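As a next step, we paired sequence with structure tokens, yielding the entry below.
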Amino acid sequence: MSAPVVRVTLRGLWFRRRRLVGLFVAVFLGVAFLAGILGLSATMTDAIDTSYQTANRGVDAIVRSGTEVASGADEIRGPIPVSVLDAVRSAPGVADAQAEAKGAATITGADGKLVTGLGPRDAGTWIADAALNPWRIVAGSAPRGPADIVIDRASATAGHLTPGSTTTVYAPDPVRVTVTGIATYGGQDANGGSSYVAFTLAGAQRYLLGDSGAVSDIVVRADTGVAEDSLVAAIGAALPDGVEAVGGRQATRDQIATVDDGFLKFFKAFLDIFAGIALLVAALSIHNTFSVVAAGRARELALLRVLGARRSQALRGLVLEAAVLGLVGSVAGVAAGYGMAAGLKGAFAGLGLPLPLHGVVFTVADALIAVGVGVVVTVVATLSTAVRASRTPPLAALTAVAVDTSAASRARPVAGLAVTAAGAAGTAFGAAGSSDVVTGVAAVATLVGLIILGPATCAWAARAAGRFLGGANRVNARIAQRNVLRSPARVASAGAALMVGVALVAMFAVIGASISASTTGTLGAMFTGDLVVSGGGSAYGNSGFSPQVATRVAAVPGVGTAAGVGTGQARIAGTAQTVTVADPVALARAFTIAAGAGRLAVSRTVAEEHGWHTGSRVDVTFVDGRTETLPIGALYRPTAPLSDYIVPADVWSAHNPRQLVSAVYVVTTPGADTGAVRAAVTSIAGEYGGLAVAGRAKFVDDTVAGASTLLNVVYVMLALAVVIAILGIANTLALAVAERYREIGLLRAVGAGRAQVRRIIQWEALLTAALGTVSGTVLGVFFGWALSSTTSNSGGGEVFAVPWVRIALIVLIGALAGLVAGSRPARRAARLDPLVAIASE
């Protein structure tokens, strides 16, 4: 690229810097969001990697069960015989070996309330060998007896506990213990957001495993100079069948890979989707802003051509201009990405989805990726405008008037209508045929078709709106309508960004309402109980509580059934699955699911995927390595809180002797005093810390509210895209005002007051926002119907429901946002001096 082109481009950028602020802001926000998401992903990865690396830092080998059931967030393995410890210690090259018993335990603070954190309630064995123990005591001493514990410093601080304090730990049964020590993990007060309780080995075996003859695993330290591979081979030769030895580094890699391939993979994909949405909306805003700027520079470009500049030079200058703006905006966006990551982390915590991590990690690679993406998106978004501007003949540009004829093209509306119709038909076809892929691809085609059809739709909508514009503001509204008709492509492009954001918000609103209606209807019909005892939110960290609760509740006068239901991990048909564990007889009294003793219950959705039916036999592999073939005794409509598989409790207990429950479903006897029964059940629940008791209606409402939490996260992630779209409208109006100085001056000269000019611009903003909001809302409801129908037709039984109040609120907020977007350009237009404005051209 020649030096004169670079100089002219850079000088032009500086001269027009105020008009380019909107474009800069669109790039800045889009890249800041992308950088924040990359930083949040890197922080999650670093936190998980650091946690496992710290845990295994001094471990040269781990002896564990050879059967693994991956849960997607951690490894699930069964216990091994404690007798293996002697064999490991006798193996050549072993300097020390310590057995661990692991589980979950919740701490009670000095005030008698449970100490809740942001993660699991971990519990384990205190290991005396410092090389094998990532925890370090900072106050007090190690536990000496079965009722002594060491806890993390974060829990000690939150619960006002010190060495010597006596308290209760639910592990899961209540245990009266003495805090002998306070410890830190890798220099931190806790391991992420998790709490930690460490017993002696005997105490951990007794309370966490319920089996003095078993341990969870054995950690090994090698003699000096012994290679990890040699150590693993020597230990492996002494192990019984079903038990394996792996190197410490390999175990760390396996643990990290399990999380990376499960939860972290989903979490990153979830974040990337919304980063892509924000960038798409930013690209639409960038394209529209650059189009307005290029249109305003038509005469400047024509003069350059007349003076000898080639078309290719004009094109390169415009591309360079976009690249420089993209680079500057991206660098600023990356600088703000750190704060964006911290903000997203805080937003997740505020919505009840805290992330277990400290600080924010932001790498150079992430910064380079964000800058590169920002520059590429900016250049691509402006390329078509640059090509079109460079091809304009000099004489045509010198004599051009400020009228956009884009909507007058016959080919564009025909193409847009064809793509939209094909996309809508494909979306409906995919929904009817239960094809997620077809529905998704066709929905995108529908969106693209509407963007192509935008100018023609805008012109039609403006003409239609003109019929209803009357009253005291009729003249102002008519002038605004005519201005929209002069530049339909510009208005449609500004509205398209808002249409995308609003369509996604409306779609998720419909999906959320449909899920809520489906869950309410299905669960209301399936659950026939009267009371539910549950873990009380995050108090138990999803670890479950003692099955004794179900036993004691069942003995309350007036209780007919107390069905204790838990969750677990198993491999079903070769795939790791989360399963519900319950006594089928008791469950049949609380739910309309009658599988029968020794039989598996499967959701209809899963059964249809596998071609199963009642009587089909399915292989189930448990954590002890044994496999049982169970017949399917019942099929049911999938609904929270039940998983897709229900395993009989007696079958489960044969392979998992320690099974917790996550809820107890209570059915009272006919004629029982429900008030007295609830009081008795509540009294029992109070003895186990944070257990909550809810009636039937409250239980259904709480279950539905769980889906609302995720929906709120989606709204937060979409909020930035909508903000970018609103700023795009404001920037388009500001540039339009700058282009029409002379016109506005003439209006003032013939008698228009400042208030009238201000209302004209506000009407333009309202029309633009209304176009994007209404079209986006209609599109979002259509997409929501398609996805709900896809799920329903595939066996999910989802009901289509439209949240009319929320939809009306979306439309109202969209209209108000348009008025807000137009307020500053309107004030600026109203303040113009008529004589100066008339002389500006």
